[in-house]
């Protein structure tokens, strides 16, 4: 998760915004706690702790208080960022010090409603020709449009979902056109198309970097990130306290969200939907940028567009292309309500974490948005 703030007056390609990155909740990245109890967290606890962190940070760095503040994140943090933003607005209105110059938030492929986002994968799979018309229509009818926690007594739905699973079990959810890592053991149990990111992208990090086997897979890139983050010189440059954690790992499975679970060893996923938080923010003087990679099936753009539509905002501009270097970078719509504005954009050809797949287009998008320009 990043906290984007302090926009600079100079507009070079390297200076769109200053960013604070935070490893949150505790246990992610280089973050740690001194007691085992402190590792216990949840969606709401995480949001509250982040709000308190920001208050303390601004107390220590008051020269930045007048600069515009945006709260940003991608993927699961979509369940937490709207809560943080609402806490900031509520704190300002209650007179909490320091007063933060909150201007809005930005989310990429955000998990927003845990049931609907996963449920929309079937519709998305049909839209991109991974499911036939007949199979989609039959599954939709027999399952009544509900594909999670299927009633085992509903034989027709279960039969359809078995076929759906066979069609989707080897599709890479974060980017449907890219391969799964060849070392993965794909579990063909019913509904395992909602498996977690670790199962989809993990590889054996003990391989020497020059001996990564088989065809290229995006997960191989993370071998280099892991090696880099565990270099002693790197950790020293980042002011990581020596000896606090045994190693940096890409994903801490004790707090990782696996669809269908209500809690892990240390983390409780206690907020099922944050659509109401988004709706509450439409009554604030607030800007929002929501963007989706259109090849992401983990959080399909279809479900994101659906909850945005449910906010019942005024449509300012309908579906239209946006461009980078004369090429279509994606499509965008904009909405408003009084002092609230929301810009929605797709990134053509991008997967679950848009800047990873389309860095140049992502930079253009956020630079224009920060500058109050149309995409």
From TrEMBL:
Alphabetical list of InterPro entries matching this protein: AB_hydrolase_fold (IPR029058), Peptidase_S10 (IPR001563)
A Pfam cross-reference name: Peptidase_S10
Coiled coil (UniProt feature) = none
Q: Please give the family membership noted in the entry.
A: Belongs to the peptidase S10 family.
- PANTHER family associated with the record: SERINE CARBOXYPEPTIDASE-LIKE 7 ISOFORM X1 (PTHR11802:SF224), SERINE PROTEASE FAMILY S10 SERINE CARBOXYPEPTIDASE (PTHR11802)
Q: In its UniProt entry, what is this protein called? A: Uncharacterized protein
What organism does this protein naturally occur in? Ilex paraguariensis
């Amino acid at each position: 998760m990043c906290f984007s703030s302090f926009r600079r007056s100079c507009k070079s390609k390297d200076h769109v915004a200053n960013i604070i990155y935070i490893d949150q909740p505790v246990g992610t990245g280089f973050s740690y706690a001194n007691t085992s109890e402190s590792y216990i967290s949840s969606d709401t606890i995480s949001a509250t702790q982040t709000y308190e962190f920001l208050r303390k940070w601004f107390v220590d760095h008051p020269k930045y208080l007048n600069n515009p503040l945006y709260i940003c994140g991608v993927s699961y943090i979509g369940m937490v960022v709207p809560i943080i933003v609402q806490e900031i607005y509520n704190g300002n209105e209650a007179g909490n010090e320091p007063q933060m110059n909150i201007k809005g938030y930005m989310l990429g492929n955000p998990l927003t409603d845990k049931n609907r986002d996963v449920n929309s994968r079937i519709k998305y799979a049909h839209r991109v020709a991974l499911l036939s018309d007949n199979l989609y229509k039959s599954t939709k009818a027999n399952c009544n449009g509900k594909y999670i926690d299927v009633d085992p007594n509903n034989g027709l739905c279960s039969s359809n979902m078995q076929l759906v699973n066979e069609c989707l079990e080897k599709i890479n959810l974060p980017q449907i056109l890219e391969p799964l890592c060849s070392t993965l053991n794909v579990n063909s149990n019913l509904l395992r198309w909602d498996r977690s990111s670790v199962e989809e992208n993990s590889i054996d990090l003990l391989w020497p970097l020059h001996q990564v086997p088989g065809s290229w897979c995006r997960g191989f890139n993370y071998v280099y990130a892991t090696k880099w983050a565990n270099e002693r010189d790197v950790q020293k440059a980042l002011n990581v306290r020596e000896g606090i954690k045994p190693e940096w790992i890409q994903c801490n499975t004790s707090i990782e969200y696996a669809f269908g679970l209500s809690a892990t060893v240390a983390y409780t996923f206690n907020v099922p939907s944050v659509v109401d938080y988004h709706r509450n923010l439409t009554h604030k003087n607030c800007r929002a940028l929501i963007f989706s990679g259109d090849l992401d099936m983990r959080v399909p753009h279809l479900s994101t567009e659906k909850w945005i539509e449910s906010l019942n905002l005024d449509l300012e501009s309908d579906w239209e292309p946006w461009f980078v270097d004369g090429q279509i970078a994606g499509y965008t719509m904009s909405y408003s309500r009084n002092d609230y504005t929301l810009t929605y954009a797709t990134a053509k050809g991008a997967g679950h974490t848009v800047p990873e797949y389309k860095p140049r287009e992502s930079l253009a998008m956020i630079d224009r948005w920060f500058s109050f320009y149309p995409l």
